[in-house]
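Ticket #4471: complex job returned nothing on first submit. Input attached below:
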Amino acid sequence: MSVVFYLLAAITLAGGLVAVLLKQLVHCALATTVAFAGLALLFLQLDAQFAGFAQILVYIGAVAILIVFAILLTHGSELPKGGVFSRTWFVGFVIAAGVFAVLAWAVLQSVRAVPQQSTVPAVTVHDIGDALVGRYVLPLEIVALLLTAATIGAVIVAMHEKERPR
Amino acid sequence: MATSSLTANLDQIFIILRDWLVGYLPAVLRPAAGVVLGAIAIVGVFPGLFAVVVILERKGVGRIQNRYGPNRVGPFGLLQPIADAIKALIKEDIVPDRADHVVHFLAPIVLLVTVFMGFAVLPVGRNMVLVDMDAGLLFFIAMGAATELSVFMAGWSSRNKFSMLGAMRGIAQMISYEVVLVLSTVPVVMTAGSLSLTRIIAAQNSYSGVFPHWYIFTPWGAAGFLAFSIAGMAETNRSPFDVPEGESEIVAGYHTEYSGFKFAIFFIAEYLSMISISGLAATLFLGGWSAPFSFLAFIPSWIWFFSKVILSLFVFIWVRGTLPRLRQDQLMNFAWKFVLPFTLLNLLVTALWRFMGEGWLRWVVSTAILAAAYVLMGRVGMRKEQFGPRRYRYAE
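Support reply: We reran it on our side without changes. The output follows.
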């Protein structure tokens, strides 16, 4: 664990926290982007170039923009009057803590379950490409089909309703 | 032998210069110092090129529009960029009272940083690349995608309806054309078998006879280059794709409320992204820094790279002076119903090209498919358009 890791972790966590605490929804979306960028940098720090750049391309380039668009198009950009804390914040906190505990437990268990490798595996972009069209081609195709179905569905939802003859 | 070593040295002159400068430092600091020097070179050279392009554009568009262009500052108005820079620096920085000050301040910075980052992976000459990444192309595209956010930040934080409209138009346009941009680079990756820009150039840097193996000289490469140029023009909000800043409709779009140096940063960033997208086009389709004929290879590689970039910038200026602005719906229809299907078909053609093996048959087949698709899609798309007098409904 290096200094860089702690710095990036701090940025990511700060982005996430600020996203929850700020009042203005657009600010929250921008803070989420900071968290996304921190995650991308963490990937890069682990020498996972492809995952890091894909994170930037997909999350900052598309997901963040999508969030922002959703906020603006749903009139959510107006400031809430009664503050951002809902009355059921305690229940939410308990659920979040529970999810975090399960995930942390799983991560800690996995260290013991997977045998420790002495050398860091060098994964190039080429290897990822080979794996995607070789071993994992079926999951890839299923995901592609799912996304196509989702796209068609979105178009149908957004399509103008044809005027019915009266 | 003496001449060949001279040309080799001239080719590598900047590398030799860097190594000589770094040589004065202790060995521990050398790698870091080399990177810093490279970054300084990028930050120095490309804004210099920006100044040249601005004067070229103002003069060029002036010629196209039958007027002189700037001709007061210096000989033939050549010192105009310096005057403009001084003016931008000393102008008052006005921020609207109700603007979101933090976001308003951050937007130009985010834009300039992401635009500059793209240059890091661009090979400007033999061995002349700041970071030779395994996924260089992906990095470049990821940085291009990140600029969209700053457009939104600028438009939203200004609290101005023109800015907001410009930002919404800009993001809609950039997202649509980004799909095309990414998909039009995929054939190159398929053929070169790598996302690293240096390896993509290496794959093109060979000659049959005197002619180079650039990807633009293949049917799929020409089609890909066409799609890439269209998408690149739209990504950089250049005319005819400049609805996000259409000055006759929405003042200046997302940077309406920026003045002084912050406006200058938007201006610089627009031209820098033009330069970087031209550089990427040259790298992917025009062989990067390799010479157009094998007997011209003695001219240093960086001269070839910058010649290609300036040539493509000239085309940018030429198109700006010639074509009218597209309407928003035409823009979207063009991206989703014409360019995108064409690019998808191009992927298929590239796969065919790859697996048909050497020979003339693959030339005929891929050219035929692409040309037929181009004509057919154009005809079908045009049929629905009613060309003729158009009736507009204004606010009723």
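The mean pLDDT of chain B is 83. Closing as resolved unless it happens again.
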